[in-house]
Amino acid sequence: MTGEVPDAAPVQTYRGPVPAADLGWTLTHEHLFVLSPELDRDHPHPEWDPDAAVDRAVAGLEELYDLGVRTVVDLTVPGLGRDVTLVGRVAARARVNLLAATGWYTDAVLPPYFRTHGPGRLIGGPEPLVEMFLRDLEEGVAGTGVRAAVIKVVTDEPGLTPDVSRVLAAAAVAQQRTGVPVVTHSNPHLRTGLDQLRVLGDAGVDLRRVVVGHSGDTPDRGYLRALLDHGATIGVDRLGMAHVADDDVMVDSVVTLAAEGYADRIVLSHDAAYFSRVTPPSWRREHAPHWRHDHLARCVLPRLRAAGVSADDLDRMTTHNARRLLTPSVEAAA
To answer: Which among 103, 96, 90, 158 has a CA at the least distance from the CA of 134?
Structure first.
């Protein structure tokens, strides 16, 4: 496999650092709870019960463990209602390793605070996004001691707005200091992954440390090959998400690209959640019933095996690639 990183540096989880070799089968782009703190406080969703949600997540993760999954990367960051204390309750009871992320989820504008804080702005001072990302990565989130293991960034229909570019620039600084991977939300139909790679690469990020998320949504394999040939990893990570992506398209792309020798730069996941205010459980049950954290294990992997994808390539896409990516780069960790 290309770009393998030594397993010397540990990977940060909710329960503390673990050797990268212990990560095992990893779902690289998932969520536990997608929330909206102001709405949740003032206008609670009728389906949201935190205690029941924790129990449901623990049960789901225990089921994943029995299916062979050992690590889940929770890419819920500020902008999506990240709550490390709440997820910590799940991590304390589940055998699966849970990894936290830093970053900011916006596809257009940041909250008003950022308009006045930072170099050249009304209040001034250093770039707060860099300080926040580094604090999450090096000290822990919100005083919990839970250190993030991944940086999450977004580009979508609005493109590289000033605030989106600002988040990418801050992510590049934090990535190079800590050596953790950058995992993105992209819009493959608009080919925004290429914008992400250009901006991050120009800022000095080693593109072998980048996962362009949601790439598998598109059947445009020329675009996927372009991302891969830049050295990046692509996320085929909306399996079961029927209202956005088609499992047949994603399976066909994986089969084709693996046969072409790209299995060392593909990761597989669902972008699912045990509760999301955006698409609540009752809606999911009716409109996307297979959009679950166990869909890959139960349905997709058997399809890939039947289509001729080798056991070695499946191991790369489920285990080895995640281990390589999640191991902090030696240069930055030194």
So the answer is: 103
